[in-house]
């Protein structure tokens, strides 16, 4: 499990949205000041990854060519001279969210999202262009988190695939804890709830002591989610009909006191235009409630101006997570409050870089909450 001297860096190269990914050899990056080179052990493939690579999701603002894909679990291969904690051989989680060091308002997701405007484009096309679908990735020093290998691997028995579930949990923590600032005893509606991030956010909210209402159109999927979450006593679901008045009433009726929800966390997917549940959910809000938009749909949502004003509602956009949020996620995983891998009922189908076409097809057809498809550029 230790670091070794590498002779090549196999990588998946995206040169054009009109061409398939190509497996090539790239130079092994050098660990300069402020950076770390990590031997990539595992990264989970999102079901929409192939759509990004073919240009069907321009919202990600990728400027080609590059090695795609965001975060990973890896082992430190080399560190820059200013590293004070990380050292070669450390097991780490790399969070792909990067901010400009001289302008923290500029943000990208390495190998995955080009940010906004000229500044985001400059940051994406520079030092931090290439993502996780390679054997050795150079990343900013401040974006890695040294993991407690004794606790997570030797005691809890997690593999790199299990640990990369953290990449989803940190996004849920960003939405539920950082943006919504959920408190124990509050009620949060999450929808659509049966996808990966919706399910993750339900799990995070339950772990923080909240009452959770999962919103979805398929009762079968909602029942499966309920079972996956252990038939938790603070979990309920609402089958949405598309009738805003009826759905608003159903959400209110499902709250502990019938008075509505303090938080609505929207996870409308990238394949949608607008949000299917926003209109009903916002009308079920309690005064001073928080609406957190975390999905990736195209188009717009219609906001009831007077309602937002009269109820003092906050509408918050949240795409990633801060370092504090990642630290919180790791604490929850170390404590066992968040259960990964088999302990949480997850399954992983793992592929090598050479099998990437099969991996992308599998991810598109089979992904969901606790159902993952992974690529392992290096053996564990």
Automatic annotation (TrEMBL):
Pfam families cross-referenced by the UniProt entry: ADH_zinc_N (PF00107)
InterPro entries to which the protein is assigned, alphabetical: ADH-like_C (IPR013149), GroES-like_sf (IPR011032), NAD(P)-bd_dom_sf (IPR036291)
Swiss-Prot/TrEMBL keywords: Metal-binding, Oxidoreductase, Zinc
Cofactor(s) the record lists: Zn(2+)
CDD domains: MDR (cd05188)
Domain called Alcohol dehydrogenase-like C-terminal: residue spans: 198-323
Domain of life: Eukaryota
Gene Ontology molecular functions: metal ion binding; oxidoreductase activity
Family recorded in the similarity comment: Belongs to the zinc-containing alcohol dehydrogenase family.
Name of this chain's protein: Alcohol dehydrogenase-like C-terminal domain-containing protein
Classification of source organism: Eukaryota, Fungi, Dikarya, Ascomycota, Pezizomycotina
């Amino acid at each position: 499990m230790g670091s070794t001297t590498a002779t090549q860096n196999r990588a998946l190269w995206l040169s054009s949205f009109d061409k398939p990914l190509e497996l090539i050899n790239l130079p092994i990056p050098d660990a300069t000041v402020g950076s770390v080179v990590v031997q990539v052990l595992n990264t989970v493939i999102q079901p929409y990854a192939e759509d990004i690579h073919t240009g069907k999701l321009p919202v990600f603002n990728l400027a080609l060519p590059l090695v795609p894909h965001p975060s990973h679990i890896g082992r430190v291969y080399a560190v820059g001279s200013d590293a004070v904690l990380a050292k070669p051989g450390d097991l780490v989680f790399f969070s792909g969210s990067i901010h400009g060091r001289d302008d923290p308002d500029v943000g990208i997701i390495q190998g995955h999202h080009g940010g906004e405007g000229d500044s985001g484009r400059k940051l994406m096309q520079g030092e931090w262009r290439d993502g996780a679908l390679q054997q050795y990735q150079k990343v900013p020093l401040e974006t890695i988190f040294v993991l407690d290998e004794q606790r997570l691997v030797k005691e809890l028995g997690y593999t790199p695939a299990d640990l990369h579930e953290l990449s989803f949990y940190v996004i849920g923590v960003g939405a539920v804890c950082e943006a919504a600032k959920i408190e124990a005893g509050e009620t949060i509606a999450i929808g659509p709830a049966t996808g990966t991030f919706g399910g993750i956010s339900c799990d995070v909210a339950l772990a923080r002591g909240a009452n959770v209402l999962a919103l979805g159109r398929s009762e079968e999927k909602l029942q499966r989610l309920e079972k996956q979450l252990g038939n938790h006593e603070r979990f309920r679901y609402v089958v949405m009909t598309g009738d805003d008045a009826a759905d608003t009433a159903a959400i209110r009726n499902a709250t502990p006191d019938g008075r509505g929800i303090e938080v609505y966390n929207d996870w409308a997917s990238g394949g949608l235009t607008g949000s299917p549940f926003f209109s009903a959910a916002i009308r079920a809000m309690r005064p001073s409630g928080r609406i957190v938009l975390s999905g990736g749909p195209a188009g717009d949502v219609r906001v009831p101006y007077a309602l937002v004003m009269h109820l003092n509602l906050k509408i918050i956009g949240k795409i990633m997570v801060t370092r504090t949020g990642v630290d919180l996620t790791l604490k929850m995983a170390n404590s066992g409050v968040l259960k990964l891998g088999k302990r949480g009922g997850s399954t992983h189908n793992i592929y090598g870089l050479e099998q990437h076409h099969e991996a992308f097809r599998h991810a598109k057809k089979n992904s969901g909450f606790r159902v993952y498809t992974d690529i392992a550029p290096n053996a564990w």
